[in-house]
C-alpha cells in the first residue's frame, strides 16, 4: 500500500513539476518572471532551489557548430569534427574541467566549458587504451585515474592526458568500479568484494582493505559509487541494500540512511553520490530517475528535496548515473540561470540514455530568498 | 459637604464677628480664636482679610441659629478666584477633580507649607485616603520613608499615570542621577532599564525584599526569563542563586560592560567566588589557584568562557556541567556518558579500537584512548590523565598527577614527534609510536 501511495504521489509531483515548467513560463517564479523554458525545482509555490541549466551531448554543445576542432583524435585538418558522448557513466570536475567516462565509446571526454573545448583523452591509445571506463578521479597534481571495468584496472594519466601506468590487475577477485584520490591515497571501490581498497597514490600498492562487511547488516552491499567529502568522510551508495553508508577513512561505518523502496528518501537503484562543500549529499537514482538531496547531521538524515523526475520537456533525467558537484565554473553557468536566480553550486549529472548525456543543474536561490536549504537544528539554536 | 468647610461655617456661626467689615479683623480675643496661629497661614488670613472668601448675607452677625456669612464661591471655584485652575492635564487627583481642595489643604493655614496640616511628612495626609499597606513594607523607598510623596507625585494633576511628575524612567532618574551617569557608559543595558519602566522590576513605594524588588530574586527575574525556571530546579543548583543576593550575585541587573549583564568578565565573576579552599562543604576546588601560572589552559578558560562546560543556573549533571561526565574516577565509556568532553573533542575518539584518524594517542592504529577509557572493568575517566582547567603539561596532561586517595599518581608523560611515552603509577613504562608501533610484552594491560 505504501509503495502504491508513494508511487502515485511521485507521479503527481512529476505532473506538478511538468505543470510548473509551463507555469514558470507564464507566471514566473518567486515573483519575477522566469524566461520561457526555465525549469525550477521544487515546483511553486515553493521557492526554487535547483534550476536545470543546460546539457551537453557532443562537442557542438560546447564549441558551437562553427567552433574549433581538435586534432587529438581525427588528425584531420580543415573540417569540423563533431565528437560526442555515446553512453556515459562517471563524471568528475577538477579545476573547471569536466571529465566524463564514455563507457560504450571507450573514451574519457574532457570538457572545458569556459574555454569552449571538448576533447577526448590524449593518451587513450596503446597501453593506455580505454575499453570500458566507468569512473574517473583526479588528484591534487592533476593526474587522472580511470577505472576500466573491462580491463579491470585503474589507468593513470598525467595532467596533460599522457598515459603513465595502470594497476589493479593483481587484485584478486576484485572488480573496481569507482575511485577517489584523497591526499596521498587512492580509494578503490570493489563491487565484487564489497569493500574499499586503499592504495598508495604514487605506487598503486595496496595498503589495506577497509569497509568489509564483517557479517553485520551494516556493511557494504554491492557498492556502486562513492565519494569523499572535504572533511574526509566517505559516502557509498549500495545497490544491494539501497543504503548510503558513511564511513571514515579507516573504514569504520559511522552511519547510513535510505532503504530499498519508492518512498521519499528511499532508493531503488542508487548510483552516483556527491557531497558539496556545505555537506549536502546528492544521490542519483537510476530507478527513481532523479537526484535526491539529503543532509546527514549527527547520524540523522533528512531528505531536503529531489529533482529531475520524468515528465518535463527538459531537465528530466534518463537513467542517471554519475554525479559531481562543484563551485568551479559558477560564473560561467550563471549566465544559463534565470534572472535573479543566484547559483551556489553546479551539479553535473550523467544520463545514460536520452539526448542530455551530461545534464547540468544549478543549486541556488532567488535574490532576496533568505531561506536556507538546511534549517538550523535545535542544537544549533541553543548555541 | 466637605467636613472642614462645614466646621468652618459652624465656627462662623458661633463667632459672628467674622461678619465685620474687611478692615476690621474677624479674629478677636473672643471671636474666631482658632483661626491662624499656625506656622503657615493662608495669605488672606495673615492679612486679616476674610472677605475674599467669606461674604455677609445677613446684616445681623452673629445670628443665633442661622448663618449670616456665606462663601464667595463654592468648591474649587472659591480657590480659583486667586489660584490658577487645574484640569488641563490628563490625570487629576480625585479631590481636585471634585473641587474639594480642603480635603488636603487647611483653608486658613497649616503646620506645613501649602496649607497642609502634616508638615513635611505627608504620610498621614496621603494615607487618609490611600491604602497604607504598601507603605508599611520592610523596605521603604526613601521618599516614602520620609513622607515626601510629592517628590514623585504631583498632588493636583499630571499627564502621567499615577500623577507622576514625569514618565517613570525620568521620575526615577531625577534623583538617581549617579545611575544615569554609569548607564551612559554601559555596553549592555537590561531592556527594562533601557526601555522602561523601572516598575517592571521595582515597587516604587515599598517591598518585602531588598532593592524594592516586586518579588525576591530569582522570582522577579523569572517573570521575563521563564526559560531559566527549569534550570533553577535542576538536580544540582548553583548556591548563589539560593541566597538573598540571588541573580544579583553574578549579574549586574541594570547594566554592565560584560555580556549577559554579568558583574564583570565571565571568568572573573566565577573566580570571584571560586578562589578559595573554603567554598562549600566539602570544599570545592580552588579554581583560581589551579589556573594561576599554568602554561596550558583549557580552550574555554583561555577564552574566559566557563559556561562552555558549566551551566551556572543549575544542571542535572555533576558539578553544574552542561552535559554528562562521570563523577567517579572510573567509568567505562558508553554512548552519551562522555558527551561533555566529546561535544568539542573528536566525537569518534572512543568509538573504535583502531583508528588512524581520531587520535594521535595511538600505537600504530591501536587507539590508546580506547584502551584506557573503554575498559569494561576499569574505564579511566579523562581526569585520570588530563586536568580539566589548566596544566603545566601539554595536552593538559597532569604534571602533578591525579589525586588518588592520599596519593597523587604521577604520569611522567613525554611526547615525541611520532608518539610518546608514560611511566605512571598505574603501570610500567610504555612507549607508543604511530608510525612504527611498539611491541608490548605480556604486561600489555
What does this protein look like?
The complex is a heterodimer of chains A (383) and B (445). Helix content of chain A is 10%, strand content 40%. With 383 residues, chain A is mainly beta. Chain A has one domain: Neuraminidase. Chain A has a five-stranded antiparallel sheet with strand order 1-2-25-24-23. Chain A is globular. The N and C termini of chain A lie far apart (42 Å). With 445 residues, chain B is of the alpha+beta class. Chain B has three domains: 119 residues, no CATH class; 91 residues, no CATH class; 106 residues, no CATH class. Chain B is built from 16 helices and 19 strands. In chain B, the strands form nine sheets. A three-stranded antiparallel sheet of chain B has the order 17-18-19, with no helix packed on it. In chain B, a hairpin with a 2-residue loop joins β15 and β16. The N terminus of chain B is likely disordered. The chains are: A mainly beta (383), B alpha+beta (445). At the A-B interface, loops of A face loops of B.
List keywords for this structure.
heterodimer; A: 383 residues; mainly beta; Neuraminidase; 4-stranded antiparallel sheet; 4 helices; disordered N terminus; B: 445 residues; alpha+beta; 3 domains; two-stranded antiparallel sheet; 19 strands; 11% strand; zinc ion binding (chain A)
Give a quick precis of the structure.
The complex is a heterodimer of chains A (383) and B (445). Chain A has 383 residues and is mainly β. Chain A has one domain (51-329, 347-382): Neuraminidase, CATH 2.120.10.30.
Low-pLDDT parts of chain A are 1-31
Backbone CA Rg of chain A: 21 Å
CATH topology of chain A: Neuraminidase
Task: Extract low-pLDDT stretches of chain B.
Answer: 1-23
